[in-house]
Amino acid sequence: MPALQTFPAVTADPGVIRQVLSDSPQLMVVAFDFEAGAQGKLHNHPHIQSTYVESGRFVFSLAGEEFEVGPGDSFVIPSGAVHGCRCLEGGRLVDGFTPRRDDFL
């Protein structure tokens, strides 16, 4: 078994803590802890992103469409799609990125 690596938790946006959970050049898993009312600003990136809602409630904007998600929901964000979220009820999102988000290291 490879040695486990621990990554620091950092403030990503006001009320949002980001922590890389695991990574390789081809894949990265990242947890985002949100306080109620916090926002993940609209942005895009070349990575394909898979988001899993571990807890809380969120309104996501994806390519101009809005939808609400809660615990157990998951979805994929295509490469280059403009997206962001607003946290309705504090919780955690777990995102997978391919390839790795080097800007998070």
CATH architecture term: Sandwich
Structural class: mainly beta
Could you state the CATH homologous superfamily? Jelly Rolls
CATH topology heading:
Jelly Rolls
CA-based shape: globular
Number of helices: 0
- For the secondary structure, the number of strands is 8
Q: What is the beta-strand fraction?
A: over 45%
Low-pLDDT ranges: none
Q: What's the mean pLDDT score? A: 96
Helix fraction bin: under 10%
Number of domains: 1
Whole-angstrom Rg:
13 Å
Main sheet makeup: 8 strands, antiparallel
Report on this model:
- With 105 residues, the chain is mostly beta strands.
- It has one domain (9-104): Jelly Rolls, CATH 2.60.120.
- The chain is 0% helix and 64% strand.
- It contains no helices and 8 strands.
- It has strands spanning 9-13, 16-24, 27-34, 39-43, 48-62, 65-69, 74-77, 83-98.
- Strands 1, 2, 3, 4, 5, 6, 7 and 8 form an 8-stranded antiparallel β-sheet that branches.
- Strand 2 (16-24) and strand 3 form a beta hairpin.
